[in-house]
Amino acid sequence: MEYVEGRNLSQVLIQxxxxxxxxxxxxxxxxxxxxxxxxxxxxxxxxxKPANILLFADQRVKMTDFGISRLDTSALTQAGSVLxxxxxxxxxxxxxxxxxxxxxxFSAGVVLYEMLSGGxxxxxxxxxxxxLQVMSQPPxxxxxVRPDVPSxxxxxxxxxxxxxxxxxxxxxxxxxxxxxxxxxxxxxxxxTIIVRGPRTRFTAEALSTVxxxxxxxxxxxxxxxxxxxxxxxxxxxxxxxxxxxxxxHPELRTRFRNEVMRSPAAPNATAIPPSxxxxxxxELTTYxxxxxxILVKRALQVAKSPGDFWQTLALHIERExxxxxxxxxxxx
Length: 332
Hints:
Layout: E1 7-8, H1 9-16, H2 21-40, E2 53-55, E3 61-63, H3 91-94, H4 101-117, H5 127-136, H6 142-145, H7 151-160, H8 172-184, H9 204-218, H10 222-232, H11 236-244, H12 250-260, H13 274-288, H14 292-302, H15 306-314, H16 320-328
Antiparallel strand pairs: 1-2, 2-3
């Protein structure tokens, strides 16, 4: 499934139909990341649906129309056709009750269901029919429509679509983690696997510095982004890269990277010429993607010679044939 620059998910679904499990979770995972930021600021979206999810060619996903607090009945279609927004509302929204972040998680579950099945779980010819389904009927069995969807992912979607908010995930972060774990074991064999060591503990001063610089580009949401990245990253370089991806404008993203990634050279870094480091990153990116930037930084800290540097990078390439091809381009 290729992303199309600036098109919303609704348009992509109409044109392309179902998503693979990994592609669907990748999209909804970013939607949940965005919702986590909003929820952290006390904002409930209230209108999570494909039309408000934008897909970009660089694999980024954006949520739009934050803060909608009521259903615009003028947007409903006439009786006899399938309704739009009501199909994604939570049961408590349909009942006119107060909603919290868990309502958005229900809606995100509906969107994920649609991405995998090709159809909405709750439909009808009018608002009443849709609302009754949302409030009282379980969605059609997704495993029948898509037997290739892993059971843990089915279970996660069912939890997200629980009628009672108490039975759903406690937060967008928890739901995103569950979705990503559910497809991790189903990863294809040709994916590069990076074994992580003990999680790095970052000092408050270091995180404050990153937050201050990031705030210049994304505003007060920087605090949440930095704290979230700190729970995921294994090094300061990786934390920098995670939060840099949250800056939409390419020039500002580059400026931020230049600001925060200037650090004293590691003891062994002088053993590797800059031209060799650049060549290593360029070649490694072919096999592992953008994370090559971080892997090169780590290799520069431990490699004692150009040959050692190249061998260290090769360890991150899973296929033997690919490792040989990579090593054949070694420059010393």
